[in-house]
Amino acid sequence: MFARLSVYTLLALSICAANAFPQYQSLAGLSRDELDAVIPTLQFSPPQAPPGPLADDSTKLINDPAHPHLPLKDGDIRGPCPALNTLASHGYLPRNGIVTPVQIINAVQEALNLENTFARFLVFSTFLVNGNPITNLMSIGGATPLTGQNPPKPATVGGLDSHNNCEGDTSMSRADFFFGNNHDFNETRFQNLINFSNKFGAGKYNLTVATELRNFLHQDSLHNNPQFSLVSPRLFTAYGESVFPINFFIDGRQKDGQLDLTVARGFFQLMQLPPDFHRHDGAISNEGFETVYNKYPIQPGSNTVGVNTYKADLTSATLFQPCLRYTSFVNNNIKALYPNPTGQLRKAINTNLQFLYESTLADNCTQVFPYGRD
Ligand code: HEM
User: 19: CA distance to ligand 1 center in Å?
Assistant: First the structure.
């Protein structure tokens, strides 16, 4: 047996230690059975303010001896994001795949040089719909008791696998939700990326390939997935993710924008950084997405009554309406999960909503307060 106090202390240490970019162990060596018994009893853990940008965002060695790739242990969770999976398998994130928002921001900044505002936006928007505001924990894959006791329904706390919050159709290496498994690596799907790289990129993944592949994936879902949908917020992640492999998976010392396919497979499938990997030279986010969009512009929309019945959804934000994206995400997506939160839950959601809003300041949107001001 173990004392409750020591478990709290160890958990706190493992969360606070995020700032030092340590290698994470599963919670202080407790067995899976012990964790399963203990984690759901965790109490309120208030949201932590997000970190600012890196002081030095130049390129540097990331696949270093302090962050070895380790095989998954029984119970470790992975999900649809090849970057977060890889960072967990190298110990930049807790290796069990249960994370706090601040841990993710620190990890994606430190290891991949994701720009601070963009990192905060991605993290707080996904956390608000897929994480547990009470314990401040989120799974990078499926729902699990390791994120603690859930707030009352209709909240789902489903982790990043949750469909249509940020995960969605037309992924490069995961199947559409309609076909069953939207989160594990899918070789058939990945072969499209390989074939398009061979056809349009002379064996490399680059901006031309990203453009052609995105159009193909859109057409493919439209023709084969009766429930195909591509509306905000998924619309934004889809176009961002098309250029992410170019912006983040290429070694920071390599400046030609051509991603080697073995390196790509390392991230997408094996969750492994290449040997001697250096991060991008300078903070970066979704640069290039307009190029991908402009050749084959689409309207947000869905198949309405089966395959090939794509209809534009005029209520969805387009890629160029960040304020509509923000307000409808808060007023629709978040409100649907938390219609009337009270007490600490309301406080925690409001704090996370404030963090989300602060990540959109450059867009000059009007802030919305669905649960009142504190
Ligand atoms: C530099 C940082 C990141 C990179 C390079 C990255 C890269 C990617 C890529 C390439 C995909 C597409 C996978 C595919 O189409 O098969 C993806 C998917 C995803 N990522 Fe990330 N990501 C990053 C950060 C994040 C963060 C901070 C979050 C949220 C906390 C996140 C959540 C997701 C989710 C939910 C998906 C699934 C979307 C889908 O394809 O349906 N990612 N990521």
Answer: 22
Q: How many angstroms separate the alpha carbon of residue 233 from the centre of ligand 1?
A: 13
Nearest CA to ligand 1 atom 7: 83
Phi and psi at residue 296, to the nearest 5°: -130, 70
Neighbours of 275 (CB within 10 A): 8
Tokens representing 195 are 């074939």
Query: How many C-beta atoms surround the C-beta of residue 11 within 10 A?
Result: 20
Q: Is 3 exposed, middle or buried (0-12, 13-18, 19+ CB in 10 A)?
A: exposed
Each residue's pLDDT expressed in tens, for the chain with a length of 374 residues: 222 323 322 333 233 333 334 555 444 445 555 545 554 455 799 999 999 999 999 999 999 999 999 999 999 999 999 999 999 999 999 999 999 999 999 999 999 999 999 999 999 999 999 999 999 999 999 999 999 999 999 999 999 999 988 899 999 999 999 999 999 999 999 999 999 999 999 999 999 999 999 999 999 999 999 999 999 999 999 999 999 999 999 999 999 999 999 999 999 999 999 999 999 999 999 999 999 999 999 999 999 999 999 999 999 999 999 999 999 999 999 999 999 999 999 999 999 999 999 999 999 999 999 999 97
Q: Which protein residue has the closest C-alpha to ligand 1 atom 32?
A: 81
Could you state, in order of their start, the residue ranges of all structural domains in the chain? 49-363
- Ligand 1 pocket residue status of 209, Cβ below 6 Å: no
Q: Is 230 in the pocket of ligand 1 (CB under 6 A)?
A: no
Alpha carbons 148 and 342: distance in angstroms, whole number: 18
Residue 72's alpha-carbon distances to 85, 122, 237, 268, 286, in angstroms, are: 10, 25, 27, 15, 30
> CATH number of the domain at 49-363, out of 1.10.489.10, 3.90.960.10, 1.10.3210.10, 3.40.718.10?
1.10.489.10
Contacts of 349 by beta carbon, 8 Å cutoff, 6+ apart: 128, 133, 334, 338, 341, 371
